Structures
1.
Amino acid sequence: MLELRPLQIQTQQLKMTTELRQAIHLLQYSTQELSDYIREQAMENPLMALEEPSVPPTPSASFSSTSSNSSEQRDPLSFIKQEEDSLQEDLLQQLRYLPLDQQQRRLTSHLVLYIEEDGYLREDLEMIAEECGVTEQAIHEALQIVQTLEPAGIGARHLRECLMLQIQRKASEKALAYTLVRDHLEAIASSNHHEIAEILAVEVKDIESAIQLIQTLNPRPGEMLSREQPIYIQPDVVVHSSDGQYTVRLESDLLPAIHYDRSYHALLKSANDHEATRYLQGKYKQMLWLLRSIEQRHHTLLNVSQAIMHHQKQFLDKGIYYLAPLTLRDIAQTCGIHESTVSRAVKNKYIQTPQGLFELKTFFSTKIRTYYHQEVSATSVKALIRALIEAEDKAKPLSDQAIVDHLQTSRGLVLSRRTVAKYRKAMHLPSSSKRKSQGAHY
């Protein structure tokens, strides 16, 4: 006979606290984004007093790290946003008018922050679910809500989904167009209209009519809402060279310094006004968590940057053609952290090196084999392809196969024509026939 009795089981579980989520977000921020976030927090926290950088950053890619100790006062009105609303603000405004419960509003607002300027959401949904402490199903349901916003196609994870979302909004003739995008997108791009018509048992004219509808769709819907002004890039990390030795340092001097406003100290310790004291104690804890999160961000970013530059010493000495193959796992193992932490640390970050200004993610690329049993990075190969195309005779541009042959002869690279074509397209360089017709204008 089975006996029912209470059983105590001890398990370990990682919970995503508000503070842990804040630390993750701060790691992803660039220096400029972190500066803006600190100012936003200071506006909501009376205990935070900010000391602005004594010398504002020069809006230029060739960054100067000169600073002084003068206590120059800056007008707080200079931090008020001058440009029009961003894509994210537009979408958040739309969400405010939807009848959502508290969790739906939290999750949809969180998803909107991951939508890129072209309207796509490319972040892994499983990771977002983990950050928010909810199931993947809850995130998928929130994404479905986001995808109902305007313009149609917003929040798509890839081109096929973007087009399908737009077709669903069309009132007529959408069934065939939807099927074409869902099942035959590559085929219609290669103009196999008769073959598709036979497969779907429809007239060729119906296929062509559906394709005309598809051609009216917008593959980058976010650009309809994106109105931000161009921003100047400031490096988050700087590499200095001295006597053949390289040192890596953060540009943390560009951040506002956070100080504790002691004018509230008496009220914070007061036993008379319990409500005010509890409020200030909460704000004090928030300030401490922010300081710890910023310190942790600095520590992680510096360690990751140092590890990357250690792997890329040939690049520092000789330039872009000498980039070594490098993966997130390589750096994660070097630093003793998770690959996702490395990914967040390098996101939207730039590094000033003796070879120029680069995005940190530039230093991660796959391996390309050579006939000499060596390995070079795909990024270096792309740079070589670009250099060949830029130096070619514009009247007789190099074909992809000619580039393959040249790189094999001069560098010993083992490449296929398809690989060269893929890299060329990734750099938005037209084919040889189009380059010949366009002349030097590409």
Note: Residues 237-363 form one domain.
2.
Amino acid sequence: MSLLEEAWEEALEGFVAHRERQVVYLNPKAAQLLGVNREKVLGRPLILALRDHRLEALALHGGERLLEVRDHLLLVRALPGRLYLLDQTEAQRRLKDLEEAAVTLAHELRTPLAGMGPLLEALTPRTRQEKEVLDLLKAEVARLARLVEGLSPIRPGPRRPVALEEVWSRLEKLLAERLKGRRVEVHLPHTLSTDPEALLQILLNLLDNALKYGQDPIRLLSRLEGDRLHLEVRDRGEALPEYEPLFLPGRRGSHLEPGQGLGLHLVRRLARALGGEAYARREGEENVFGVSLPVD
């Protein structure tokens, strides 16, 4: 047995190799996740090992999806002749625990935040500089309040027509220090009927992510595609090995290192609450992180 085969025999990730719709190899972890006897499926049709037409379609056509397969939640990635299976069942259990803890945290933070607003309103600035600082503090307290609400089950607020340029002007103020010295190109000509606060949080998280991990120029743009409006943040950072796992809690950075990253996870939750979806991919020389939202 070669060193490579020995490594796959011990791997915690399932691996299936196939050629011309026949199983060439599958490791013990893949056999466990798929619930098959590998001696009985080696050299047999691929569908006998996978026993799921969704998995077979991915294996044959490529792509990446999160699928529930025989009591396991699997992150499946397919490349020509290769299928990788990563068990996300335990991660989803931890996610549920995390969301329950987040709801508790949100409950505890609401009271002090609610008291800070009136205290700031009671202050009377004496100079223009003091007024600017007070306005910034009010905006930050309001943003913290929105973040706290974002920790709870997502419930979009009232919708109204929102000019995206209006959202950008708010983003500029919130990220003023972070934007200094950075090259950010903005093209947001559209208006969307949506919850403006949820939309602000989506774009804030996407842009913050690009400022942390991306490379200039960073492009913030909107484009209409059928009945969906796509809002995207594009940057010239290095190509990432995987994109879909970045939307899971605890994934951050350019190498998917473990962490406390919740930004993209919250983006997806907000996008889905608004009837849309979040996505990430590589296009040409750019990393693209965006959401598609219904126009109506």
Note: Residues 244 and 280 are 7 Å apart (CA to CA).
